[in-house]
Amino acid sequence: MIEWLADGLMLAGALFCLLGSIGMHRFPDFYSRLHAAGITDTLGTILLLTGLAMQADAGDALKLLLVFSFLFFTSPVAAHSLANAAIKSGDKPLLGAFNDD
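Above: the chain sequence. Below: its structure as tokens.
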């Protein structure tokens, strides 16, 4: 049963990472792309690491949980720092309708 749950978590994590990659390619401006990368990449990686930790032995699971905690705290901070730097440099978000011409 744990194998199935771990496989499901890893599959969900891979799908979130794929959706984030598609969003980075398709969205029109920096802020939308940053949102796609920050949210889906963090969640996808956390799901992948949780699934891997469920299948690993205790020592490796501890290492994966340390990586998990590092990413859980640093990824949102990095996304916020990038957005703050973009705002301070004068980059404006794209507002209104977007044409895909």
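The radius of gyration is 17 Å.
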